[in-house]
Design a protein that fits this description.
single chain; 114 residues; mainly alpha; 68% helix
Length: 114
């Protein structure tokens, strides 16, 4: 078992297990489907899924949502989160339309050369 904090969870394998249980139960009870892989990566989506499970008025979903919430690590430094978002935005904004076009053009003519 992992005891480190990865992507906001104290225990990643247990969180994944609980998320899959929520997925199955939420699908049965409400017909809604969640993305468990994305849930493991995005803190905002975790909160959304927990709120969705709590609002379903199902005791099993509420129990699993509370279990998932108990595994969350809320002591992440806001400055660190802000820095990570700024880095992601920087990398996204550095790519220009011309660079995208150049990357795509080389693939356009492969079939024509044969």
């Amino acid at each position: 078992m992992q005891d480190t904090t990865i992507n906001g969870f104290v225990n990643r394998s247990e969180a994944f297990s609980i998320a899959t249980l929520i997925y199955a139960r939420l699908r049965r009870v409400t017909g809604r489907v969640i993305d468990v892989t994305y849930l493991m990566q995005n803190q905002d989506y975790i909160e959304h899924v927990i709120d969705l499970a709590l609002s379903a008025n199902d005791s099993e979903l509420q129990r699993q949502a509370e279990r998932l919430r108990s595994l969350l690590v809320f002591d992440l430094e806001p400055d660190q989160i802000k820095i990570e978002k700024e880095i992601a935005e920087t990398y996204e904004s550095e790519v220009t339309e011309e660079e995208i076009y150049r990357a795509q053009v080389s693939h356009h003519y492969i079939g024509a050369l044969r």
